[in-house]
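quick one, 127 residues, struct below
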Amino acid sequence: MQRDMELIRKILITIEDKYVDVALNSSEICIDGYDMKTIGYHCSILHDAGLLDYFKGQYGGNELLFFFVGRLTWDGHEFLDKIKNDTVWNRTTTTIKEKGVPFVLDAVKEIATAITTSMIQAAIKGM
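---
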């Protein structure tokens, strides 16, 4: 399965919105256009990347039946804060596509940070 950065962003936003103090289950992380197995896979790799503190899948007959995820880690919050804003996200994805940069976590972080810094500098100049 290929990694989908759009889905990753949606998952992080959903977990940030819904997580209170106990693990979320797969029925609580429904995202239009994606099935539970695809969402579960992406939650698993978010955990591998250190952006989620917990992932536990329940399997049967060699397939994912349901899963649980924990809270965002500090790094998960930091990454989401960089890409949550729609303007920053759209400019980041446009830059990646136009420049032929690989759509990888580090590139997204770097480009989103540069765009945010540019927006901050413009706001300061306008004061």
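The chain is about 55% helix and 10% strand.
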